[in-house]
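Troubleshooting: if your tokenizer reports a length mismatch, compare against these two reference records.
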Amino acid sequence: MSTRAERAKEFFKNGYACSQAVTMAFADKVQVNEELLAKITLPFGGGFGRLRLVCGAVSGMTAIAGLIFSNENASNKTEVYEIERELCERFEKETGSLICSDLLTGANLKVSVGGTPERRTNEYYKKRPCAELVYLSAKILEEYLSERNL
């Protein structure tokens, strides 16, 4: 059986956006079907619609954490924000940034913005850190949940 992190990476390698890949790997955990999660989180890919802002894998990770930890009337905002900060700090400690453009330039890649995603080829996957960032985001969340017996 594969881990959620491995499944997330596989979703990404099958053409899903970084944000979609992370959330879809947790679909059963949050009892939301993969297709709905994919629709909801598509705009987060590429750092919010390829604006290269917050990494889509991080957005996917925090979206799932929100589904797990938020209550229905949002009265536990402080608790949820603390959880989000913890998750983001773990990611940033590993990567140096939460920002898509920083993560790409750190891998010596030219940062392009705009609505048209790059074509997914073997070369794309070799040069970009995205698949590993998807894996890392899902792994961080997986570990966080395990630490809390969830």
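Reference record two:
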Amino acid sequence: MRAAILRGRGRAPTAGPRVRAGSAAGADRVLRHPAAKPVVFALCLLPLAMLLAGALGGTLGANPAEALIRSTGDWTLRFLCLALAVTPLRQATGWHALARWRRMLGLFVFFYACLHFLAYAWLDMGLVLSDIVRDVGKRPFVLAGSAALLLLAALAATSFDAAVRALGGRRWRALHRAVYAAALLALLHFFWMRAGKNDFAEVGVYAAVVAVLLGWRIGKNLIQSRVAAGN
């Protein structure tokens, strides 16, 4: 009996990891379901549908133009945080199917960034190119936002398999690390925009999220470098 108890004690600690591994595998199967990606795609379009409904229904407040510009900018930052969270979440949970959504989320970042710029260029600048160029040179937060948009455009243009083959894996990965530069420029754009109102609460939330995700990436790379050096 004593031997049986000891054997039972020896086996007990392995139950937790097995349960966690089974849960991760189950969640991964759900994420790989053929219906999962279309559902996520539809959810990503939901903010646009809500904004269009608000614009058509006249429920965007006293200044609909400002509401559209602000909301599309907010959703750009939210999708940027989601796209940056894919790799850390995949590594932390073992939900490897999340990698299938990274490209789609990244393209939605660019999509909402384009909507944000279009809303600004149309509703604020009247689509007058000379006024837009002058505004970019005049106001630092517009310059930072424009630079972030250009980086996102480069990332979106090279997000497809043909670009990976043309650039090569190493160069492609180096280029796509620029997403963190785009995130920092987007935060700077938001910070300078809010500086006029002395309202930095939301800026702080987004900055904290980006800092955690960037810190995870840096820490993971350092650990991998040390392991590789040790081998």
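Descriptive notes for reference record two:
- Residues 65 and 123 are 6 Å apart (CA to CA).
- The radius of gyration is 22 Å.
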